[in-house]
Every structure is written in C-alpha cells, then in structure tokens.
Amino acid sequence: METAIEVYNDVEMRSPETQPIKRRKKKSMVWEHFTIATVEPDLRRAFCKGCNQSFAYSNGTKVAGTSHLKRHIAKGTCPALVHAHAQENENNTTTPTPYTPKGDYTPRRRYRTQSNSAYVSIDQEKCRHQIAKMIILHDYPLHMVEHPGFASFVESLQPRFDSVSFNNVQGDCVATYLAEKQNVIKSLQLIPGRICLTLDFWTSKLTLGYVFVTGHFIDSDWKIQRKLLNVLMESYPESDEALSNAVANCVSEWGLEGKLFSVAFNHSASKAAVEKIRPQICIKNPGILDGQLVIGNCVARTFSGLAKEVLEKGKDVINKIRDSVKHVKTSENHEDRFVELKEQLQVPSDKVLSLDDQTQWNTTYKMLVAASELKEVFYCLETSDPDYKHPPLADNWRQVEALCTFLKPLYEAASTLQSTENPSAVTFFHEVWKTQSDLSRAIGGEDPYVAGIAKTMKEKVDKYWRDCSLVLAMAVVMDPRFKMKLVEFSFSKIFGEDAGKNIKTVDDGIHELFSEYMAVLLPLNPASDGGKADGLSDFDTYIMETTGQNLKSELDQYLDETLLPRVQEFDVLDWWKQNKLKFPTLSKMARDILSVPVSAAAFVDHVFDMEPREMDEYKTSLRPETVEALICAREWLLESGGASSSSSSAAAVKAEA
C-alpha cells in the first residue's frame, strides 16, 4: 500500500510517455490520517490509518476530493482517534477536554455545522444538580425523573447519562436547599438590628396546616429585606399552639434568640393562641414593650376581609352582572354584537369585559367596574338581543356603583402591596385611617344599602385599629415629615372624645421603647466597631455616666425639631441612614420599627386571596422536610437569579448530609 508521498514520487519519476497527468504534491492535513491504494485498475481508494475504513479517492481520471475524508476526521467517527483521545483524558489530571481533531477539518458547507457534543465528557453530578435546580425553580413534580417520556428525552440528548430515581432527585433537591441555606444564614448573621416575623397560614385537603415563616429586616445599607425562612407542617392547625410552635421552631433553627422584634400573622387565631406567641417576644427578647408587638391580622388579610364583606352584601346583584358578562363572553355572535353596539354608542371606555375568578376579589372588582362603564351598551343589548335574559335593572346598576365605591380604595391600597417592593407601615397608616373616615361618613348617609355595608366594614376596621394602631402609629412617629403631629391629628378624627387617651398610649409606648433601647445600650468602644483603640474607654464610660440623662432626651430632641417638607419621593430609611450619628440610639429603634411588615402574605401575588391558600395534593404527599426544601430553595434561587450556588457546593452539602 502506497503512502501519499510515495505516490507523488512515483508519478514524478515516470517518463512523459507513461505519465498521463502531472500531479501536485498533496498539501492537505488530511493525508496525515489516510493512505491511497489501488484496488482495481484505474480505481484507487483512500484508507484511514486508524480504523482502515476505505473511502472513494479516484476512478480513472476523476478524483473524488477530500471533503468526505475531512468529515470522517472532523465528526469524530473514527473509533481509533476517539479511543486515543479517551486514553489521553484518563491520563490527564486536569479537566477532561472534548475530542477536537488537529488541523482544519471543518466541512465547508453552508447552513450546517457539525457538533462534537456527543464526545464531551459528561459530569454526572453536575447534570443531576441541574435537574434538581430545574425541578425546584419550575415547581415540577419530583417523580418526573421516573416518567418514561423524560427518560427517553434525556437518553436522546446524552445516552451515557445515568438515570435517576425519585430518591436520587429528592436528595439532590435537599442538597441544593442546604447549600442555599448557608447563604441565608450568612445574611442573617449580618443583620445590624432586630428581625420581624410574619406567619402565612396555608390549609390542605388532608386537614394539615402549613405555616410560611418569613423574616423581615433592614440591612446595614438601610434597605428592607425579606427572606422566606421556613415552611412548617402543623398536624393540628386549629390548636392554640400551632402558631407559637412555628415561631419557636424558626427562632431556634435560625439562632434568632434576642433578635425578634414583632410577629404578624393572617390566621384567625384565638386569644389563647396570641398569648402563647407573646412570650416569644417579651421573654426571649426583653425590652420590647412586654410583647405588645404581636399583630393579629395583617393589612392584606384585613383588606381581603373587607372586600369579602362587600361582595357578600352585594352577591345577588353581582350574580346578575356575572350572568350578563357570561352572555357576552361565551358566544362569539353575542360578543360581536356587543362590540357593534359599543361602537355605535361611542362609549368612551377602554375597559374590557372579562369573567372574574371568584377566589381573587380584585377580578370581581374589575368585572364590576367594566360592566358599570358599559351599562348603556347592556341597555341596548337588552332591546336588540332576544337571547339576553334577565338583564340588570336600573336599581341594580346603582348598587353596582355603590359596591365599586367601597371596593376602589381597598383595591388601590392592596395594589400598593403588590406593586411596591417593600411597602411601609407609614403608607398603610394613611390608607386605614382614610378608609375608616370614609366609612364613618357613609354610615351617616341616607342610603340604607350603602349604610349597611359601611357599618359591617367599619367593625372590621375598628378591630384592626385596636390590634395594630400602636405599631402603625409608631412607624409614623419615625417619619420626620409627620412625627406625633399626624398621630394627634388623625386620632382626633378617628376616636373623637377618646383621642387623648389613644394619643397618650402611642406617646407612652414610643418613650418606653426608647428607654428600653437606652437600657441595653453598651458604652461606646471604638475597638468593638473594628476601629483602633485610642485608650479613651474610661472617658467613654465617664461620658455615659455624667450625661446619661441628656442622652435619654434624644427622642424628645427629635420630636421637637421642625417637620420636614412632605416631598413625594422622600426615602425615610435613607434619612435615618444619614442621621444615625446625630441620633445613635433613636436610629437603632427606628430601624427596627420601620422594618415591621404590614402584610403576612408569603408571596405578593396572594394579597387579593379571598381565602387562605391551600397546599396542593402532590406536595402534601411528600415529607414535610422535602416540602420546605422545595419551596424555600425556589424563593432563594429566584432572589439570587437562579445561580447562586454551584453544583460542587450542593454536592459537598449532600455528602456531609
């Protein structure tokens, strides 16, 4: 068998009579891997040096070219080359590299590329970590890895990937959760102040309860942060100990003893249940108003409860409106006719009719608003469409407008919870105060229908004020645009003759809390702050002893200063950040007060729920620890962009577990 060079030399030495054609020296790098042999007269074939596979080369004077030879090398289909590369990777202590032939063997074909992916070294651990992260992020069932369709799909991508079982992927998901948990632990250790907890209670069809425990705090840069900390299963959700157990478990697991400032929840709890939560604050966290900062109802649940009362009072007329919308939306002919009438009447409305989701009260409100704005079209539809049965009467439309009047402020306030990243208690002090004032006026109105709804709503608002007015008012006092002045003004409108007593309660509470912060204030020590000791620690002690009474007036000094202008874009946290040296103790107290959350909803898209959320049947079939790992890890991954932990860290955590 001749080599390419021998063929060349042989041709050159022939006489002109025997040399049919002069051949140039073969310069392509492909001939490093091929030889040429004559298999029949006037028929030559190229043979691969590695696998001895033959390819067409020439037939008479017709030469086949080298493109097909290049593909044999470039695609990595030569077993000898692939085997040699695999042995090289085994002997290589560095990261294995994919097989790449030497030289330029890329076929010059347009619109098509060749892939070496089939020969890329596979990392089984990394692939399993990515599957676990995919399941967590997209809330897929763990059992999907055992579904035949998924197994076939993975095999088509990478036949060498080892199949995983339910137990495998469950362990991988828990490992991912534990790796992400380390990041959360580090962030909690850096909290400069205290932490507030919210408890969002979910139900299930198995009569089990699930408590979502979320921590709220202000970080060292004076930014409000929230972290979902636990999803705890409660076997007896109706017991008085259910909520207090959740708080105790969270405090113990995350090392929050001495750091807890307030607790808020959205579960209808008995007085005994609330009293069992209170010691979690005042016993393990002395100096926090004797556990008074337990908020029995979050503002989102309060607004949903008010909306529910409105919808219950107007359920008959709402059903009529809903049936009218169904008539239009469930028939293409009816909807076309409705659009025609709307254009004829030139109704100036950009509202689009849509049926409501009765589990989300904001959708019912939007349906009523749109229908009310299009009532003239419904009047015309009544006379032109014989299929339109039982249309709303004029009095019904008046009732719809009254319902929308009550629902509008609730909708706008709750939308703030959903649209604002960190809504402040100051904002909702205004919203609740305004709602109560409006309801008081509506009760005294002449319309008995409106007055009846207003009376029922006001009872709920009054209860919310009794539970939360102290916390909301303290947050207002920490806003230099309002301080005690807004509390005095609003309470005089709300409580009338009892205003003085309620104002004094807030004033006494804020001073008592400040005194308690002063009591735990340690002497200034530059070395403790990471600075260089200057030998004046005794002087610091002397200052504390001789001017202690003056330091206690720090709060009064703040309250006596002139109110700041009420600019719309004012950042109250940034103001305290800039003034923390001027008010060293008060700024610490302000940090904790302003971190108190106004909503206990675990997720912002749940603020319009009519009823507590229900855990799906699949998750209730899993172990409680797995449920917690899946839900918490998903939130943490989404917060960090989905890529905060590496596969190696998850593998390490799994190995330790």
UniProtKB/TrEMBL annotation:
An individual GO BP term: post-embryonic development
Subcellular location: Nucleus
Amino acid composition bias (Low complexity), ranges on this chain: 93-104
Domain BED-type per the UniProt entry, residue ranges: 25-92
Region (Disordered): 86-108
Record's GO cellular component terms: nucleus
Alphabetized GO MF terms: DNA binding; protein dimerization activity; zinc ion binding
Pfam families xref list: Dimer_Tnp_hAT, hAT-like_RNase-H
Alphabetical keyword list: DNA-binding, Metal-binding, Nucleus, Transcription, Transcription regulation, Zinc, Zinc-finger
Broad class of where this protein is predominantly found: nucleus
Domain of life from the UniProt record: Eukaryota
PROSITE patterns: ZF_BED
InterPro entries (alphabetical): hAT-like_transposase_RNase-H, HATC_C_dom, RNaseH-like_sf, Znf_BED, ZnF_BED_domain_contain, Znf_C2H2_sf
Residue ranges of the TM segments: none
Assembly mode: Homodimer.
Protein name: BED-type domain-containing protein
